[in-house]
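The freezer alarm interrupted the setup, so I double-checked each line after restarting. Inputs confirmed:
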Amino acid sequence: MRFELRPGVRRLFRLSPSTSERIRAEFDDELEAVIASRVDHLVRHGMSPDDARREALRRLGSALDDVRDSLRTSAIQRGRKMSLTDWIESIAQDVHYAARGLARRPVFTVVAVATLAIGIGATTAIFSAVNALLLRPLPYAHPDELMKVSIVMPGRGDRPTNFDQQWSYPKFKFFRDAQRAFSELALYEDIQTTLTDGDAERVNAERVGATYLRVLGLKPAVGHDFDRSLDASPGAARQALLSYDLWRHRYNADPSIVGRTVQTGAATWTIIGVTPPGFKGLTGQAQIFTLLTAMTADDLADAQLHNYWLVARRASRVTAAQAAAATAVLGPRISDAFPSKFQPAPWGALAVPLDDARIEPTIKRSLLILFASVGFVLLIACVNVASLLLGRAGARGREIAVRLALGAGRGRLVRLLVTESLLLALIGAVVSVGVAWVGVRALATIDPATTLRVSRESGFGAMAFSSIALDWRALAFALGLSVTVGILFGLAPAGATRAELTDALKSGRVSGAGARAPITRRLLVLTEVALAVVLLAGAGLMIRTLGNLLRVNPGFDAEHVLSFRLSLQSASRDSVIGFYQQLADRLRAVPGATSVALGSCAPLTGGCSSTLFARLDRPKVESGLMPRIRIEWVSTSWFSTMRVPLKRGRGFTEADRAGAPDVTILNEASARAFFPNEDPIGKHILIGLRGLDDVEVIGVAGDVRIDIDSVAPPAVLLPILAAPRLQTMIFVRSTRDPASLAPDVRNAVRDVAPRAPVYDMQSLTAREAAATAKTRFSTTLLVVFAVTALLLAAIGIYGVMALAVAARTREIGIRMALGADGRRIERAVIGEGMGLVAVGAVIGLGAAIVSTRVMRSLLFDLSPTDPITYGAIVVLIVITAAAASWVPARRAANVDPLASLRSE
Amino acid sequence: MALLKGTLDVLVLKTVSGTPMHAFEIASWLEERSDGRVAVDDAALLQALHRLEDRKLLTAEWGVTENGRRARYYRLTAAGRAHLREESRRLADHFDALLTILAAKAGGA
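Predicted 3D structure, all chains:
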């Protein structure tokens, strides 16, 4: 059955009959006419009407119905062909007409295209980031089958439940052998190691299970994968895979690499292959993958040593939900098999799709907020272009009205307007690819390793900012966006003009504009101002947050301090002390260096190590219930080098070393937490369970932050000479710029220890900057968006007011002729602009208060309804509105009454 | 008398080469000019008219007959005129050749 619209419906919507219907009716009429003419003719020659009709039907040649059908069929086919060619022809005509129209108004066209290009380009750039970091499938075979399996460690005291706890080897073995949901499982651990054959090189690495690549569905580019049997038990052969990158830069892509060995400290590894290009492990940074089971059974025996992440591929026909359920069921069984003294409450296990773990929640949130913000900018850009087109439609009112009167269909006219805006949008899209390309390059060059770690805390960092690129998805996105935008803001003015058009024809007014700017344009400007206010609120809050972060006193003086890490291979305790003494002397001899300190932790870079803590003058508690405390080993000169003040008691001396009584300095946070209203000096405490069971507190030092946005947690400082370490952090304070100091420091270290790798060399100010990088990233982009939005809104206000003044030139002229003061007219125009803005700003402020709530987790020491921010926005928007309406107001005040009256 | 295949189109073009006509007029004119020897089915004529219109050899417009009836009037286009000239010559050649053969003595080897 054919689908046909009922005529009533057709009339209701004023649809013209379809082409084929019209043709059918036309040829039915003609057939009737031919028959009627013949009947007339025969009757005139004396035949009776009945006979004449019979004769006429006979002369048709076949039955009437058949004739009608065959005529109709051929006619409709022909009609279809014609209407298609007509259609193409008229489209071509429309495009030609639109192009000519745009070329005739170059200023309008350039402004509109630039506005759109900025809007679409910025949106596309941010979409690329969203695409790369959130949407694009993980670069492994069937990534949807991959899951991250974690242990759930129940919370205790003020410590929340950890849903992403790593595995210990015994627990993993238990899980692997008990489960059926996964076909392949592999542990991996994020480590750092030093390649010691040839030039010493410190690299990121992963310890991995033998089936690591198999889980991910990857095959080595060179050589072969680990043999599956190597997973069976600890103490397996020392085998390693190189990353493609390491193979290229350290081994010159040597094709005979397989079978050679690589040295990491005392261990020698046999290279069995090279991973595929681009692959750097799930941590996103690994250069070498060593076999986890090459560790000894002793190393892997501790069931409470939770060091390893677990990635697994689901067995076929097992859904993610089934796998998660099966994993959850095994959690309590693992807990029973390996009871923890520290946390007796039952532990659990959790499997989540690897894809869900790909990005840190705060980065995800920032990205989505940025995406929404850039969407606002696009919206404002569209509103401006719609407003521009509306202004044009107004100016062309009479032309359009005449076309309507001459019989141009309304549909055709709308199509013309849509074609014009579509053409505009597509040109905008082409230019926007350039804008997007620049934006994407800027985003991708944000160094993922040092500034924005995408998801290192969950052991998974494969989704780096460097993977952001303009791909076909992003381009398709830009194209789809511009087509939508083109149709939408083409239709808006087309719809809005209808009423005005008839007016225009009736009144004969040339401009088509009313006494006031058309209500539609006023609404558009109102919307623009509201959107700009929302963006300004977001940007303002981020600026305030950044300001608060930068004002934070981290507890040390970062200026003019260079820091780096040093890793010694092996040495006896005594020779390490001697070595450090020698190194410190040599570093102090570097021109400009004023003091040198050793430490175990870098400030402002998150966790270091922590351990259990107890006061010896209080009743003994079970170790599982002891509070934890951060522990840091520092040299005697650390306080003066870092400029950390000693609040009470004494600092460390050269005598505080192994063999002497153990002493410690508390930070203020731990003095407050554990010795409230007491003097801790002289008290004895226990630190950890490995020998520091009677330590005397000798001083209290100022707090040093380990995270920029939270107060320092309780910590104890211990003298590094009491337990010299192979890996240390070294700080050099100097009178010189740390960057210029760096080569001299490297040379100095080489003089003393030619084989020890120096790495992670940064000034402390750079470490400080890295701590605020995420905030600076979001702030910069939001500010750019907000400023763009404000500028676009200013252009919008200006456009509307200029149009209003132009339309009222005659009225203003009459008023002036009647003695009105130019100043008063100027004030009136500015007042009108401000009124418009005030309404938009109030709506925008309301929307901002609601929408900035999603930013709460990104703000630091600031409420989302911060009055200073909102006050500043109001001032800013008032100034912008005044400035934007000032030029049209001046023009109004300078109207020459005579000239304006003569002009019409 | 039935028409030779392919000749109806050229006859129709010839018919409307003077003044625009509607379908019944065309049928009548052909009948009169051939002294009643050529009779065309109205259905076939309409098909031919539409076909020629489709090929842009004719154009059509609604008008009113002397009897006050609505009818579609067909007119020759420039392309139609050229086509008519060409086809007329081709047909003339064709019949000339045919007649020459028919008039000749039957020949042997």
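Quick read of the result. The radius of gyration of chain A is 39 Å.
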